[in-house]
Amino acid sequence: MGLLAAFCCLDGDKMHEMALMGDIIQLVWDDAQKKEFSTINKIDLLVGVLSQAMPDALDMAFLVYKEQHPNILSKEAVLEIEIEEAVAKCVICEHEYIPDQRITICPGCGVPSGNLLKGESFQVISYEGS
Prior knowledge:
Distance between the termini: 31 Å
Shape: elongated
Helix content: 25-40%
Mean pLDDT: 89
Order of helices and strands: HHEHEEEEE
Low-confidence stretches: 1-11
Largest sheet: 3 strands, mixed
Strand content: 25-35%
C-alpha cells in the first residue's frame, strides 16, 4: 500500500494536515523558484500546541507529498517541526500561565479572562533548497 493509500485510511481529521502541507509546499516552492532553486531540501515549521495542526499528521503528509512530487522535494528532503507551547496572561490579575485550550479560567484569580500570548502559531520559519 502506498503512502497516500495508507494516509487516506486514517480518520478524516488527518486530511486537514494534508491540505495544510500542500499549501506549505506550494508557498515554499513559489519562493524557491524565484531564487532559482530546483528542489526543496528542508522545511522548518513552527506549530503551536493550540494551532489545531497535528505534527504527526503533518509529518505523514510531508512524506506523501515527497513521494508524489520528487521534482519539488528532494529524496533527502526533511521536515522539521518546532513545537510552540501555549502561554496565556490574565487581563485581570496579569498572571501568566499555561492554558490547555484557547478559553480557560485563570488559575490566579479564577476568572475566564486569559489573553493567549503564544501557542497558536503555524508558520514556515525557513527552508533550504538547491
